[in-house]
Every structure is written in C-alpha cells, then in structure tokens.
Specification:
The model has no long low-confidence stretch (mean pLDDT 96). It is built from nine helices and 16 strands. The longest helix has 15 residues. An eight-stranded parallel sheet has the order 7-5-2-9-1-10-13-16, with helices on both faces. The chain is an alpha/beta fold. A hairpin with a 2-residue loop joins β3 and β4. α3 packs across α4 and α7 crosses α9. Bound molecules: inosinic acid (IMP) and magnesium ion.
C-alpha cells in the first residue's frame, strides 16, 4: 500500500494575510507533491498568487490547482456551494484544470441561512468576512450540520473524494496563529484551528510532518474588529507611517476589500507563534515595503515601547538574533522581498 511519505505545512503566524499563497506556489514548483490540501476555514480566506506573471486570488481551493496537483478541501473545511462554484468557474475560465479539485464528503456545507446570520450578527460585532463561518461551525459542533456528501449539488458529485492521501503532501494553512480559536484574542478570532496540529485532520499521522513553513510580514496587519489593534497610545508619526505602509504594501483584504490596519511587528508574539506552531522555516515578507517607506520599527521585550532602526539590515539583524536565540526549532529565516516567490 502506498503511504504518506512527507508532509510539509505552510501556516500563518499572525492575523492572516502573511503571503501564504506565494509560499505554497513556490513550494509546488520546487518540490514534487502528490497533493496540496486545505485543512481549515472556508472562503473567508483570500490567497494571492502569481502564476506566469498573472495575479490570481483563491478563497477555498488550494493553490495546487495552478500546477495541476490534486487539490483537496479537507473534512474540517466549511464550504458554500455558490462560492465554490464561482471559484471553480473563475479558475476554469483562466484555463486551469479544475478536475484536480477534490472535496472531502465530510466537509460541512455553509447554507445561505448561515451567511444571513453571519451578516446580521458577526459581521458588525466582530468584523467577520460575512462568509457564514461562525454559524456553520456552530451547527457543526452542535452536531446538526450538513455534510458535503449529503448536501452537495449533482454538479459537485465528481469532486467528492474520500480516499487516503499518499506520497508527498503540502498543507496550505488559512488565516493565522492569532485568529486561531484557541490561541487568539477570543472572541475576536475565526471559528477554526489554524495551527499545524490541526492539519492532521486531513488523515496523516503527525510523525510524517517534515517542514513547517511559518509565514509572517515584517509588520503586523489586521482586518476586522480587534481591541488589540486600537489606535490609543500610538504616536501621530507612527500613525502616519502605518498609513504609508498600508498604501505602499497594498494592504487591502483579498476577500472583503476592507483596508487592513497596520502595526509594528510584535516580536514577542512572533516568538510565541513560531514556538507553538513548530515553525522550522520562517518566511518574512515585505521588508521592501518598509524600505520604500523608509521607517523601520519593532516591538520587543514585552514593553510597549517601539524600537526604531535606521535601515533594514539593522532591523534584520535584531530580528534574526532574537528569533534564533528564543526559538529552538527554528532552523532558517528567509526574507522574501517580492510578491512572486521566496
Ligand atoms: P470570520 O472567519 O469570517 O468569522 O471572521 C472572524 C475574524 O477573522 C474577522 O476579524 C476577520 O476579518 C478575520 N479573518 C477571517 N479570515 C481571514 C483571512 O483570511 N485573513 C485575514 N483575516 C481573516
Ligand atoms: Mg488573505
């Protein structure tokens, strides 16, 4: 019997939008994977990827579809048929082979009632994406939800896939560490497990995990409501710098079109996220944005003080020193300064 060989995982270490799509795309080209799988979340996610110079956005379909790799939406995912259909149509029109898209029969169906309830309650109170995530997850855990195999339309019957994974598997995380329902600033979180431990819900033993790629930007961003990101006690200079970073870094939500709030990278929180997720390869994106804006800041040492640096090489040295001395599993720190690859 063919077994799972190696599993690599890409996970977000912040509040989502850490360039996971770019990392998944690069790994698909570098390594030979038999599967690319999403283990959590739904179309609340927004992954941006450049393929042959063209920009594409996905929400629920794993980025393996761009490389002809079997792309599995796992049993812990929440799927709305209309959203899935529009995404498949978008990919088909763009010329990609959508027959590689597979869905677990045990994924849960997001109904239009879930979406309505999300819009009524969570969208305003918590700035949810309005995709029906929390109401669908409530039904799932109350054990009254609808499984994909029982609720899906005929048009998706061919996409249902209930086989075992084998060979080399890449797991594509959605959202990030601080949006995880157990780790984040509850209730300002999403309704899923965004950490690598949860990728095992796809059906492989944890011993098969090889590399965990943690994705983060060199500044923090947040869409949606979160008191942690209040504007109080931020200097006018910093607020001005954050506006510039948002503009240069194009910090606009892929799924909702909302602008993302910017803050200096909190290095203490990043250390925690690296250590708990088990990240051994860290990919830090967007130093090029700070370079264009010309301001380099960090938060560190549990104080609320912002440390400023004169240039990116100084800032990188501090980041590397702190992370490598506080994160025993971390083997490699990679800076990626373009939206295409790392
Ligand atoms: P929900 O997942 O739509 O219920 O939203 C819960 C919170 O997570 C809100 O603050 C959203 O803005 C945030 N969120 C959910 N998905 C993403 C994502 O993919 N990127 C960034 N933020 C997200
Ligand atoms: Mg995103």
């Amino acid at each position: 019997m063919i077994e799972v060989n190696n599993v690599d995982i890409v996970c977000g270490l912040a509040w989502g939008d850490e360039a996971k799509g770019k990392i998944v795309g690069t790994l698909c080209q570098k390594n030979k994977y038999d599967f690319v799988c999403r283990w959590s979340g739904g179309s609340n996610a927004g992954h941006t990827i450049f393929v042959n110079g063209e920009k594409y956005d996905t929400h629920i379909v794993p980025c393996g579809v761009f490389y002809g790799i079997t792309s599995v939406i796992g049993s812990d995912c929440l799927v709305n048929m209309n959203d899935l259909n529009s995404e498949i149509e978008y990919l088909r029109r763009a010329g990609f082979d959508t027959s590689v898209i597979k869905i677990s029969p045990r994924a849960h169906v997001i109904t239009s009632t879930h979406k309505d309830n999300d819009a009524k309650k969570y969208k305003t109170q918590q700035g949810s994406t309005g995709k029906g995530i929390a109401p669908c997850a409530s039904d799932k855990y109350a054990r009254v939800g609808t499984l994909f195999k029982d609720g899906c339309l005929d048009m998706f019957k061919e996409n249902i896939w209930d086989e075992k994974l084998y060979g080399n598997v890449l797991c594509e995380g959605a959202q990030g560490f601080w949006l995880d329902i157990n780790m984040g600033n509850y209730p300002f979180v999403t309704s899923s497990n965004t950490l690598p431990y949860s990728a095992c819900s796809l059906g492989f033993p944890p011993q098969k995990i090889r590399n965990i790629y943690g994705a983060v930007k060199v500044y923090d961003t947040r869409v949606g409501v979160d008191p942690f990101f209040d504007d109080e006690e931020i200097s006018n200079d910093d607020l001005e710098a954050f506006d510039k970073i948002a503009e240069v870094g194009n910090e606009v939500g892929t799924t909702t079109g909302r602008s993302r709030k910017v803050r200096w990278l909190n290095l203490d929180m990043l250390v925690k996220a690296i250590n708990i997720s088990g990240t051994n390869i860290l990919v830090l994106s967007k130093m090029d944005v700070l370079e264009k804006v010309g301001v380099f800041g960090l938060k560190h040492d549990s104080t609320n003080t912002v440390l400023k640096y004169s240039d990116s090489s100084h800032m990188k040295k501090i980041i590397n020193d702190v992370l490598l001395s506080h994160c025993s599993l971390l083997k490699e720190v990679i800076y990626s300064e373009n939206p295409y690859t790392f």
